[in-house]
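Researcher: Please predict.
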Amino acid sequence: MAHPPSPPVDLPDEPGLTDGVVSLRRWRPTDAADVARACDDPLTARWLPLPCPYTLIDGAFYVEVLTPQLWADGEAAEQAVVDAVTGELLGACGLKLRQRSLGVGEVGYWTAPWARGRGVASRAARLVATWGLSELGLSRVELYAEVGNEASQRAALRAGFVREGVARAARRDRYGVAQDMVLLSRTADDPA
């Protein structure tokens, strides 16, 4: 049975999410070059269905067109993850709200190659999930990671997500091949 589309969400202009180590903010045009550099990385390209090679034009489209439109439409809050002190771009973390009418959101993230191994993804995912559950009224936030992407699964677990199982053939990669995905979630009743 098909569910009705979720009504648009009136997202705050700048949620102001931070834990003192990382901060999340809206994307800026000046982020395009760093986005292109991060997303053109072979490891990033391995796990995400991004253009390959990922160019400055792709980065500019992402920060100047796609993410502002998703935000304005209330479909997703895609944010830059930056160092809370220096402002250096460390990655991205977003909350998709396409199933909001069911009380469900979906967190996704990537970490720039120069920021890996520092807990960036887990910190950002924890902030975004907590925001969705406490401020946006979601009852459940999901996160999917390819079965082989153990680093992403570990980051999700550190962010308080619980592994539920494997969703078979749940997503297609950039080549159109169906991939099994580990499904993790946090609920409003889980500890922050």
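Model: DSSP finds five helices and seven strands in the chain.
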